[in-house]
Amino acid sequence: MLDPLSGKQLSEYDLRLLRVFKAVVEHGGFAAAEHSLGITRSTISVHMSSLESRMNIKLCVRGRAGFALTERGQTVYQACLQLFSSIQEFASLVDNLGKPLTGELVILYSDLLDHRSIENIAKAVTVIKQQAPRLCISLNMESVANIESALINNQAHVGFYPAYRSIDGLLSEVVFSESIYLCASKQSPLFGTLDADIDRELLAKHAAIHPSIELNPKGRAQLQQLNFGAKGYQFDSRLALILSGAYIGYLPLSEAQPYIDQQTIRLIKPNEYSYPFELSLVHKVNPNEKQKVQLAMDALQTQFVTH
Fold first, then answer.
1. What phi and psi values does residue 126 have, to the nearest 5 degrees?
2. Which residue ranges does the record assign to the HTH lysR-type domain (predicted)?
3. Is domain 103-171+289-306 annotated with CATH 3.90.550.10?
């Protein structure tokens, strides 16, 4: 049955034996597991012997030193945890099929939303409410670190932020990309300097704004050339610092364009000092409330990918 080479499937009897084994491990021995299992120590011993025989594996040792798992026993115990967790997850999923989703659906984002993102999220919320009218939707802004923590700890269902770094346990999908450019305002000495006269040495003489976020390799390489004198994650914060003339910094073209048109901001060597700014939809690999996550991801992906 359980012989890995046999290729046979688990039977109900096998599952019963594995439950006994799991209880024995978690109670630290045969005697301690008697009350929990509701069977005698001798019956537990018979079940354990039967399991070892069917698996052809020595699972544990007993003696004066007490109960202990063998190395293979440890492996089987970890596999048991995964097995019974999957069974419970399946039972919960089947039990919830057909039941309306209730409670809270938490969506967190890290940046002030532009008009396009607001419209896409609004359309996604409409779809979500049509499919799950009893859900309470919570939409709030948080730092990237707080969003990642909330997703990992099942305190949020979906995050919308620049996911440049890989986090174990999280999945991300880029749904929006825009180029970011190095900018200087009319108050900066660089405003009237020709691109041909601007080099790394000259840029290093001017204080720059650090974006306070992990960037892709192209962005990181450019930041290493600058001399930082300020920090600003939000684009409106960077814009205020740039307009002061005291700093140069990166802005998306959509934010900079109105000021470029007014000739109060210019791009610095745009072919050389730019990198893609990407926003991703992020969720936990194995969230507690998979239906809510799937509903939100489907609705948001549809809007952001098609619009």
1. -60, -45
2. 13-70
3. no
